[in-house]
Design brief:
The chain is mainly alpha-helical. The protein contains seven helices and no strands.
């Protein structure tokens, strides 16, 4: 499988192995590979030649379990758009962001609206939406 490197990467795994196995000075290697002597020193002192993963180890969501369940119930029962669900949920908790709502949609696999579902609560006023939200929260079925 070919390696994929960042466009600004100065070294690759082959170059790093050459650096680690070399007995030349850092300045000589830096000139040879077109990097800084700091980079050479860093790779000489490491015991591995592959990149460390920069992916987060644990993704923390800003939503509580109750908020996630509320967002899920609103979406499934009304099939409102992301913006509409965000507006509704922000009336309950103003600190919830649009991206948090979208992450919840994706995690629950409800990020696309089915084409045959009609949107029942389309023309309700915001206060009615809050009442519907609270009703969904209190009466889960």
């Amino acid at each position: 499988m070919p390696q994929i490197y960042h466009s600004n990467a100065q070294t690759n795994q082959n170059i790093r192995l050459q650096i680690q196995n070399s007995t030349q000075t850092n300045a000589t290697l830096a000139e040879r590979f077109g990097t800084s002597s700091t980079t050479i020193s860093k790779w000489k002192n490491r015991t591995f030649s592959n990149d460390k993963s920069s992916a987060p180890k644990m993704i923390a969501y800003a939503l509580s379990e109750v908020e996630k369940e509320l967002i899920k119930k609103i979406r499934i029962s009304t099939w409102m758009s992301l913006e509409e669900v965000t507006e509704c949920i922000q009336q309950v908790n103003s600190t919830i962001s649009r991206s948090s709502v979208y992450c919840c949609f994706v995690k629950e696999n409800i990020n696309t609206i089915p084409t045959k579902k009609n949107r029942k609560l389309r023309n309700l006023k915001p206060i009615m939406l809050v009442i519907c939200i609270l009703t969904l929260l209190i009466c889960p079925n």
